[in-house]
Design a protein that fits this description.
Jelly Rolls; binds manganese (II) ion; 3 helices; four-stranded antiparallel sheet
Length: about 210
Amino acid sequence: MLFPRHSIDEIASGAFLLAGWLTIDEQRQLVDRCRALQSAEAGMYRPTVRGGGKMRLDMLCLGRHWNALTYRYEDTRADFDGRPAPPLPDDWRALAARAAAAVGFAIDADVCIVNYYGDDGRLGLHQDKDERPETLAAGIPVVSVSLGDTARFQLGGLKRRDPIETLGLESGDVFVFGGPARLRYHGVARILPGTAPASLALSGRFNLTFRQY
Ligand code: SIN
Ligand code: MN
């Protein structure tokens, strides 16, 4: 009997959940790469946002740096240590393009924001709207790859007060939101500790969001 490796669900117009899209071997390789990035010289850091609060996750931007104080992209990490943003690996760009194509979108990613959530990690409801106006207008998607512990992911509408749907993003899932869903509010309400596949030996969750600036 054949078991499909993954399923594709259109959660809302332009928002797709590719559940189980990555094999466990692919997940393990990505987790190893994330760990190496985490502890590299220009590694992960805990961003401080406007108003002085700390985010509830560790971040590392590849390709271009997203400045948490100005909400702008730049070449160097001006809000942290002034180092250049490490490059976005070509095979990661290709992975993003492949996932987008699976649901009918095209992306030439030049940014990946790698987030690490510990047991108490979370991310408030927000829109991804700091990319170029042309990218947003064209509805070029964000491709989000989940590794490790399951996240309770919130998907809202185009207005902050719109109703919110909660989905579990598990290790190996890819969530793609573009077209009419590109500017939907979203966030991570919480992480479910201890839910990562045992063979990843990972406590917490890495999330990679690929974007075309
Ligand atoms: C993000 O919205 O930038 C990250 C979403 C996630 O961690 O799933
Ligand atoms: Mn986001």
